[in-house]
Amino acid sequence: MEQIIKDTTANPAPLGLFGFGMTTILLNIHNAGFYEVNSMIMGMGIFFGGTQQVIAGIMEWKKGNGFGMSAFTSYGFFWLSLVAIWILPTIGITKYDGTPMNIHPDGASMGCYLGLWGLFTLAFFIGTLNGNTIGKLIFGSLVILFALLSAASFTGSESIHTFAGYEGILCGFFAFYEGAAIVINEKLGRKVLPL
After folding, report:
1. Every domain of the chain and the residues it spans
2. What's residue 35's pLDDT?
């Protein structure tokens, strides 16, 4: 006798997409020059963009979605690492002899960090090429965002950094839109927002 097992667990994608989208929008409003990095962005980075995406990634693993698992857990840990980069220099780490250690990242190290995340994202963008349009827009705009932020770090250019902020706001809205579309379409039982 054949048994059919039906997966009745919820779709975790909106959870991760909202976490990514909203945190990305808020950070890039800063990058565009509207306010300084502050505890609001760090709190969102730790909990909503970071921890929430990791949870969504673990839920995607349970659903058998390797792409979603890899993307959400990785970008969740990206947010946690970014907040750590901001916070670690403030906690007074010292050398073995007690003298202060300068652990502030410079433009070259941040350029490498952001550039490597851009290369990582490019692999995911290629993975979206046979998928829906919104996925291509999210990952394509994220590749551009990391490239711009990396270039701004290497060059110290405020104009590139500001432009990256506006582009990043758009990237965040793409993710927010997909999360909203999945929730609304599923709840209403019809395609209200196209993907």
Report:
1. 13-186
2. 97
